[in-house]
Amino acid sequence: MYCNHCGAEIPNQANFCTHCGAKTTTNIYQEQNRTSRSNVEGLPVASVVCGFIGLCTSVFFVGKLFIIAGLVTGIISLAKKMKPKVLAIIGIVLSGIGILGAIVFSMLLWNVFGIITRSIFY
């Protein structure tokens, strides 16, 4: 069971929290919800989603925003040791591939406009 006040783990029969001294109430739903929530946290999932959207839309401006969001959420997830770690890594990798795609697309676009400009003005 977990304390409603400070979140510390306490024995199931405890009437008061051994960490902060707050009075406890037994709430089975809250205990189950807390256990299931600790397995998967939001930022690693957000990192994968943002990385994937950024990869798919990297040629547009909004895609670059998703790439940045995927990188930031992935790095924060790893720094805070959130679970599952592999999702944060996947999000960072997808964002990295999106960055490379954006760079390659920009270089191709620059060359095409350069060729068009040279053929018009020279």
Characterization of the model:
This protein is mainly alpha-helical and 122 residues long. The chain has helices at 28-37, 42-56, 61-79, 85-121. Helix 2 packs antiparallel against helix 3. The longest helix is centred in the last third of the chain and has 37 residues, at 85-121. It is rod-shaped and about 85 Å long. The mean pLDDT is 82.
Helix content: 55-70%
**Main sheet makeup:** none
Q: Outline, from the CA principal axes?
A: rod-shaped
Number of strands: 0
Low-confidence stretches: none
The whole-angstrom Rg is 24 Å
What's the pLDDT, averaged over the residues? 82
β-strand amount = under 5%
Order of helices and strands: HHHH
Distance between the termini: 78 Å
Identify the notable features of this structure and list them briefly:
single chain; 122 residues; mainly alpha; 4 helices; 0% strand; rod-shaped
Helices, strands, pairings?
Elements: H1 28-37, H2 42-56, H3 61-79, H4 85-121
Helix pairs in contact: 2-3, 2-4, 3-4
Structure in a nutshell:
The protein has about 120 residues and is mainly alpha-helical. Helices cover about 65% and strands about 0% of the residues.
